[in-house]
Design goal:
single chain, globular, mainly alpha, 6 helices, Glutathione S-transferase Yfyf (Class Pi), Chain A, domain 2
Length: 112
């Protein structure tokens, strides 16, 4: 899921002629491939590690949020339900609050 910032940076900040360059396309294809893996896992269990909420869920939820908010990526029902499930957990909220730049980005994204 770590490729989404590369793809989104190219789409949102690169000069128009460079927005769909090879690196940006490759990064988006990698993200889409990883998203399919996440979707398959969520069809079997509520979290990436099965029944347990882990740091992987924090990381993937953040990547999905970034992709949806800044990349216009449409997420399916399983991914949306997963995001609600994970983002409502206290551990997820604490993780986001621990990073000042993330807090600022979330505030801007939500209009606060």
């Amino acid at each position: 899921m770590g490729s989404i910032p590369i793809a989104l940076s190219a789409r949102n900040f690169a000069p128009e002629a460079d927005r769909q360059n090879w690196s940006a396309r490759d990064a988006m294809e990698t993200f889409e491939s990883r998203l399919r893996l996440v979707t398959r896992q969520l069809e079997r269990s509520p979290y990436l590690a099965g029944q347990r909420f882990t740091a992987a869920d924090i990381s993937v939820t953040y990547a999905l949020m970034l992709a949806r908010r800044n990349g216009g990526v449409d997420l399916g029902e399983a991914e949306q339900a997963y995001m609600v499930r994970t983002s409502g957990r206290e551990a997820y909220k604490r993780a986001l609050q621990s990073c000042q730049s993330t807090k600022a980005w979330l505030a801007r994204a939500s209009g606060v």
